[in-house]
Each structure stands twice: as C-alpha cells, then as structure tokens.
Design brief:
15 strands; alpha/beta; about 30% helix; single chain
Length: about 375
C-alpha cells in the first residue's frame, strides 16, 4: 500500500511517496508519530491528519532547525516578498544569521516584537513563530481580529518576528557537536561538559547532555545575560549547558543583537516565547510598566489558558526591557506541557493555543 506523508530533510520540505518494502513504518517516540526508514536515513514525523497547520510553507517537524527556518524564510519571501522585510540583526558565535522579519508599516510608530528560542533546547518555539509569520502573511488581506481587518492593523503598526535568537544553541541541542562549525567552540563545549561532570551537574553521556543544551555556542545562558539584576545572579564560573550568566551583561553577540534592536524602535510590547510549563511571566522587581505588562499578560492568558506568574529570576530580556530607560511592556510565554526538547506530538497542543496570539498583541498595540 502506498502512503504519502510530508517530512523535512536537509532543510527542504519533501513529499515522499514510499512503498513497502523500501520503507519500514512503526510507532515513533511520541503520540501520533510514525518512523520512516529509507536506506541509512531515519525520519520521525507525525501523521498529517493529526498535525494542525500542516499546510503551507512552514510545516511541523520533529526538529525544526536553523536550515529549515532559512529555507522557509526564502520561500516565504519568494511568495510574499512585498509584504515582508527580512533583516539580519547580528551573527551568532558560530557564524549563523540572526533574522528579523517585519510585517506591517515600519513608519507607523508602533512596533511589536515576538522573539523565540533564546534557549537552544526550546526549538518548538521557532516553529511556532514561523507559523505565526506565515499566517500573518497568508491572511494579510483576508483575516481579521475581533472584527478589525489584519490589513488595517498592519497599516497602523509593524510586527517584528525574531524566530531563533539562539541558533547555535538550537543546533547543539538538535545535532550535538556536529551542529557546531568552529573547532574552538566544539572544544569549549566539550570542556563545559567535563566541568559539569566533575561538579556533578550532570551524569549523562555527552550526546544526551547536549540534547538539553540551553546556552549559546559559548556556553552562556542568554536569558541570564541582560542587565537586570545580573550582578545578583549566582556565578557558575564556567560555560555550561545552562546557568552560566557570562562575563558581563550582553557579553554575547546574540544578546547584544537583541539589546541593539530594542534601541532601534519605539516598542509597544515584546513577547518572548519559551518552553515549557504553560505559564506567563509578566513582572519583575522595579518594573516601570507594570500595569501595561499585566494587561498584556491578561490578554495572552485569556487566549492560551496559561496561568500567570508575577516574577522571574532576573537577567532575562523581559526583565531588562521592563526596567530600562524607555521601558517596554513585556511578557514571557512558556508553551508546552512536557519537558524540553519537546516531541512533535506537543505541537497539536501548542499551535491551537497560540495561533492567534500574534494578532491579539498587534491589536492591543494599535489600540493602546
């Protein structure tokens, strides 16, 4: 019997028609997953009927990679070029581009930022933000939020998508040391592992340890690398998969790119996607836009059903945005109900909860 399914391999969406005995089908490592083996290559995906938003250019896959994202950006630009602007706001430690995709009127004076994957192992969030981007582009002239046409919202504001703020960390979590190009960075990652072993911070094998990598390619936890109580954070003292705050605030090229972007526009709000826990962090000690951040959190909670938590540990991008000069209302939204890296089966939960969040926050910015 012939079966057709969609998967991504080598950063290109491929429609594979496989006929037994060339491919073996079996239960995969998560609900609704099937495993396909062709020659020496093994792919895991969910059945199309069980995956929401499994149409269009951006397609759900088990490991949505930097290469997948770049390919999707190129295809979206080819299809919707007049509706989107693609900028490179910086370069990661391992030489990967940090992308900003803008939809809407950059001269309107109101700007919304949605950024994701500042932690490497949270790589379902780039898939989420890229699918939100595609939805915005696809429905630009036809969609509406609570009766207001998307085209009207886009005429009054611009939304900036930063789908993968930490591409090196994503590559490490997905592909291990093979995901890093620089021999010096690979050596530093190996040394971080050995130090964590020595200190009892892990007992895992190197390959397993790297799947849980949150940091950037230099072993710095980027969401502990901003100037918001940074000096009060405990100093791990060395690079690690998680928890090392770096040598100074914004010491990393990825965090500096976000700092620079924050100073480029008059932001109405910033929404930071993380995973996991289905919670929303909205406050921080010294928050100068507390009421606005709470209003934003209430809006997102009403759509997603996530519970709210009023503070976090400091050093985060949200925290810094809320206390800096020219503060910005900001929330951190933690998607997913299982530990990271999340299996593709979790997409069926994450996407319906967050599909319309981008439109809701854009509308909020326009009306505020």
């Amino acid at each position: 019997m012939k079966k057709s399914i969609y998967i991504k391999a080598a950063a290109v969406a491929l429609a594979l028609s496989v006929t037994a005995p060339q491919a073996a089908f079996g239960a995969g490592p998560g609900d609704g997953l099937i495993t396909i083996e062709t020659g020496q290559t093994r792919y895991e995906t969910a059945t199309p009927s069980e995956l929401p938003a499994n149409t269009g250019i951006v397609r759900p896959v088990e490991k949505y990679s930097y290469s997948d994202m770049e390919q999707d950006i190129r295809e979206l630009q080819a299809k919707y070029g007049s509706r989107m602007t693609v900028n490179v706001i910086g370069t990661s430690a391992d030489g990967r581009n940090l992308y900003e995709i803008i939809v809407g009127n950059v001269n309107a004076g109101k700007h919304v930022m949605i950024q994701a994957a500042i932690h490497g192992r949270e790589y379902m969030t780039p898939l989420l933000v890229m699918k939100q981007l595609e939805t915005a582009l696809e429905q630009y002239d036809t969609g509406n939020y609570e009766g207001t046409a998307y085209s009207s919202l886009f005429n009054q504001a611009a939304i900036h998508f930063i789908p993968m703020a930490n591409p090196d960390g994503v590559a490490i979590s997905q592909f291990g040391l093979q995901g890093i190009n620089s021999p010096l960075l690979r050596q530093a990652i190996q040394e971080a592992y050995e130090k964590d072993l020595e200190e009892g911070r892990t007992t895992l094998s190197l390959d397993r340890y790297l799947t849980y990598w949150k940091a950037n390619g230099r072993g710095v936890d980027l969401n502990s690398n901003f100037d918001a109580g940074w000096e009060k954070l405990s100093d791990l003292g060395h690079p690690s998969y998680a928890g090392y705050k770096g040598t100074s605030p914004a010491s990393e090229p990825e965090s500096m790119a976000l700092v620079n972007l924050a100073g480029k526009y008059q932001w109405s709000l910033v929404l930071n996607y993380h995973s996991m826990g289905e919670v929303i962090y909205w406050d921080y000690e010294g928050n100068l836009v507390q009421s606005e951040s709470k209003e934003l959190a209430d809006l997102v909670a009403g759509i997603t059903g996530y519970r709210q938590i009023d503070s976090s540990g400091g050093g985060g991008y949200k925290d810094w945005l809320q206390i800096r000069e020219n503060p910005v209302p900001s929330v951190t939204v933690e998607v997913g109900s299982v530990s990271c890296p999340m299996p593709l089966s979790e997409w069926a939960r994450v996407w319906p909860q967050n599909e319309n969040v981008w439109a809701a926050v854009l509308s909020w910015a326009v009306s505020s």
